[in-house]
Amino acid sequence: MDISNLFNPNLDKIQISAIRRFDQEVSKIPGMLKLTLGEPDFNTPEHVEAAAVAAVNAHESHYTGMAGLLELRRVASSFFADKYGISFDAESEILVTVGATEAISASLMSILVEGDKVLTPAPLYPGYEPLIQLAGAEMVEIDTTQNAFVLTPEMLEAALIANPETKAVILNYPSNPTGVTYNRAQIEALAAVIKKYPVFVISDEIYSELNYTDEKHISIAEFARDQTIVLNGLSKSHAMTGYRVGFILADKTLTSQIIKTHQYFVTAATTVSQFAAIEALENGRDDAATMKAEYVVRRDYIISQMTPLGFDIIKPDGAFYIFAKIPADLNQNSFDFLIEFANAKQVAFIPGSAFGKYGEGYVRLSYAASMDVIREAMARLSDFVAEKRG
Q1: Three-state DSSP class for 324?
Q2: CATH value at residue 293
Q3: Is the domain of 294 the same as that of 272?
Q4: CA–CA separation, 89 and 93 (whole Å)
Q5: pLDDT tens readout for residues 202-215
Q6: What is the dihedral of CA 105, 157, 219, 290, to 10 degrees?
Q7: What's the pTM value of the predicted model, to 2 decimals?
Q8: pLDDT digits 0-9 by tens, 156-179
Q9: Are 64 and 216 in contact (CB under 8 A)?
Q10: For residues 322, 328, 334 and 338, what is the CA-based torsion angle, rounded to 10 degrees?
């Protein structure tokens, strides 16, 4: 019996992440140096690892409540209030999720219905659109390539007027893939537009601790709290990708609905990881500082090496990515360019096309890799470009 046509038809609209597919493809090449995935090359802080071990030894292996350990939610409430000045009640306005990825899924599946639209600045992280499509909704990209990858209030308002079916706006800052972030005045201006319309803003702030500007990270929840669903987590700030700890912070009228989706997705986040997260947020509030300092060194080195080769780079203010425009005299098809580079020099970046139609012609490098790897990758890139130019 053929049951292959019985799947959700929306699945036909989506594919495995182009980032993962490209990474798997080039990983087959022997001796590959990879600046592809957004995973810190640092180890989880030892005091956090010790807390995880202690939880195992204490037999903390049972379910927590659906929203997560109350102690963790209290520590998270304090952390985000101290760091970013946003106040959410631990008991009713914070959910612990299985990474920021599940936070994205639970949030989108809780608010979207068939026919809705979701506005996003572009280029952007490719993990949003498949979920939007699964819900039967449509993602509308706002091209920011002519404005240094910065979304302006004017761009946002024009898109909202042109798309009256809009249910939500997604902001991701500091951004993957561009590293762009926003200052207080910019966020306040975007919030002023948001507040004029009956829409949600899903603010993906997973890179908030990796902000390299002189101004601390500003959450849009400070200005549009009632409409904002803040997403965050510990994968980037504490190098805890495998622990899968994320957070949803929103007004209780929102979390009381999102927890229903969260419950049926995962029941609750992993218990041992939650105990590790308590330690991370309580006694490791500035654990990201050492990583940040090293990331800045790596970022500046890559820019110093790629710019003379003709790559156009807007200096990122956060995260750990370089989004570089391929020189005009080289192949502008980012996939073909990088496949040739990978085969010729055994170095892998991610094609800009993986980040939507406005990413074509760019390449993304993750500098969450050691300086030794980065230096060698830059040397090989220099050789490759020189050879292409004859």
Answers
A1: strand
A2: 3.90.1150.10
A3: no
A4: 5
A5: 999 999 999 999 99
A6: 80
A7: 0.95
A8: 999 999 999 999 999 999 999 999
A9: no
A10: -80
